[in-house]
# Entry
Amino acid sequence: MSAAPARQRSLHHGNINPRVKDAKYAVRGELAVKAESIRRELEKDPSSYPFDHVIFANIGNPQQLDQKPITFFRQVLSLVQNPDLLDDSNAEVVKKLYPEDALERAKWLLKAVKSVGAYSHSQGAPALRGSVAKYIEKRDGYPADPESIFLTAGASAGVSTLLNVMARDPKTGVMIPIPQYPLYTATLALLNARPVEYYLEEPSHWSTNTTALYDLHAKAESEGTDVRCICVINPGNPTGASLPYKSIEDIITFAAEKKLVIMADEVYQTNVFIGEFVSFKKVLRDLQANVPGKYDNVELASFHSTSKGMVGECGQRGGYFELVGFDPEVVQEIYKFVSISLCPPVGGQCLVEMMTNPPKEGEPSYDLYKKEYDDIYNGLKTRAYALHEAFKNMEGVESQDPQGAMYIFPTITIPRKAVEAAKKDGKQPDEFYSMELLKATGVCVVPGSGFGQKEGTWHFRTTFLAPGTDWVGRIVDFHKQFMDKYRD
Amino acid sequence: MSAAPARQRSLHHGNINPRVKDAKYAVRGELAVKAESIRRELEKDPSSYPFDHVIFANIGNPQQLDQKPITFFRQVLSLVQNPDLLDDSNAEVVKKLYPEDALERAKWLLKAVKSVGAYSHSQGAPALRGSVAKYIEKRDGYPADPESIFLTAGASAGVSTLLNVMARDPKTGVMIPIPQYPLYTATLALLNARPVEYYLEEPSHWSTNTTALYDLHAKAESEGTDVRCICVINPGNPTGASLPYKSIEDIITFAAEKKLVIMADEVYQTNVFIGEFVSFKKVLRDLQANVPGKYDNVELASFHSTSKGMVGECGQRGGYFELVGFDPEVVQEIYKFVSISLCPPVGGQCLVEMMTNPPKEGEPSYDLYKKEYDDIYNGLKTRAYALHEAFKNMEGVESQDPQGAMYIFPTITIPRKAVEAAKKDGKQPDEFYSMELLKATGVCVVPGSGFGQKEGTWHFRTTFLAPGTDWVGRIVDFHKQFMDKYRD
# Structure
């Protein structure tokens, strides 16, 4: 008996879902894969590169870069994971390890969720949503309803949910900023919906040109696109910009007039270094109070996360979104959609609760919490400015003020000879630059093409999360050598 | 100035994504919503119903029904959340609370993930995947490759990923068992792909009729459906059946001949009460070893979860899938797809590691682990049989042997008068029966129509997770009264 010929596979690159193939997510793209392989090479042979470790500045992942978690949060999370510690029989020993308010909080959370190992309500445990509502109320000065809050596995899951619900057909258009965090374009590609790209104005701190929004909207509609939503990332990713009150007002007015849902990605709301964060919800409520009728029923979904800010707990996958002005029948469909995934991680839900209801003045954990929080904030701010200063002094590089978020997104003028070298290498010029940077310094960034940028301009996004400033010096040196090699 | 008329909303039920509207997920459907509202009513007025609490037997959520978590798992999870406990300065106190192997495991996990608050590799932390691979090797007697294992947020996320990647266009067909866990039909509805339904044979323990698979496949293809995959749930949900070796062999042969991907949902692999679990991977490797050529490149994705079995940690959202025989380019697309969601919860990943690498004989935590594991297993088995016996003795009810999983799915003969009452109420007869059961006993089940069933037959699914057997008695009493009221 001779063997049968090998069976052909069912799935190959030519016959899988083309929308999956179209989706691009550069944050974990080619550069990141190369960085990971360099990291492994260095483990085997520390002399294989002119640096001793890779710095993953491609992704806002604070604890991967040694940011310490907030002690109170982790104490409580460890208690809810091990309720035996709350047993009276362990009280004497446990009080040496845990402050009283951590024990109290853990008991309260366990009452609310029963067990972190049980599925919760698909929208998140009701009592925890209550804490989120109070946080929003305090932040904005307007009421918030726990029934309109959905806890999520990070903000990404929430963004995906909303886009899923509104993507009716291939004509569905969603206005997204360029540059943008690629979750938006990737999800729209998966849903076969159209991104309608509005370009942020780099010279004026990546501001939003509202007049241009109206023009773009008219153009898209005239081309048959059914524009349903405008997404705003504030503070900006990758831009690091922070929107002033007036811009938010203008965007809401635009959305009100054009009957668009607003998706406000506000995950960096506490990462603001210049000026003050104002939420879309607050500005919307102000407008509704001041201008009767026009702003009624404006549909706003705003997103927050435990991954960013001074919390930085990316791996715990906590987040929430608040719906304002949505049709109750649509909210029901959103609920059904999330129920198919059962529930967000319950530990992450507990963390959302603590992020929005941290220790208060006078409570045992407050001083340490405050110190840790401020130290992280100040560290981020210091590094943001150090990086910004370095970029400003680099030949052909321009960098907007570091207003917020965790990123700087400088423009780089790439010399003609380098553009040609990139072409030979089959790469975009900023991909080429970023790859050379990685190989020379171990610093992994994301090329601007991963976020979108005005044609003929080149950028990269770097976080300012890595400790120290030594790596900034390495970037400066690399850039000088790159320019010396390729200068026109 | 008079107020402007209220703005119309952008989104209403008539213009959202119709695929979201089409998706159905009865496990958290109308019955579950009613059960939750009864629970709240009872909180306010304990005399409002003839029972004092609701039993959520609609969902496999063990810890919601008082199943205790495995101590070792929770000890380690609490340590990885609070690494300060591993600090030398706390060693004296901590050793009173934690056994040595829990401390060691936590240190090892933290070395592997750095922090549970950091994003991991999108496929899951490599070292943890190594433990999963070893578990599979030991289970099946064949090698497993950590690079082919994807850690996930529960098995549901993995199932959704695979279906996303293969759903090329509206002609894409995926064979699913009927009755099925509604994740499959819901996800296919979202993807606008076609479920191709194969009916399990109730009288012979919900077995799979392989001849019928060939006929159904031919029919679907002749109708223009591009059948790409067959899904199998083993042990079965909602059926509670466990597939014998020969059936698995036949299904693999069918898939090999018809060039189909096999999705094997094996989340109940340790919940087997009659016979022994055999994995699709093992049978596939056996076939490949025995029959050269024919079974090469058979594409198998098998799913497992920390939510079921004796682990029962639904809220932690841990799971994995293993890919066998997939085209490397397709694997790359799967990787990109999951990277858009960044990573599964890192705490859940640690739990997957422990589920697949529990304490071993001779280690300090082994005895307790073994006792807890066996107690849960025996408790489930006892209750499964008790429920099965009760069903067997109920008028017009038939129940297959409780072979596995967490469910019993009895047939109920619903009298003509009850069918008419249901019709008046705008309900399917099994929905009507289940709603009456809920209101009379507080036991929430899921009607068979939520899973699919042969036309003219009626079922419901109940878990056997609730402690005690008092509630079984309540079902028996209800059924008798129901029959007395409606008997023909």
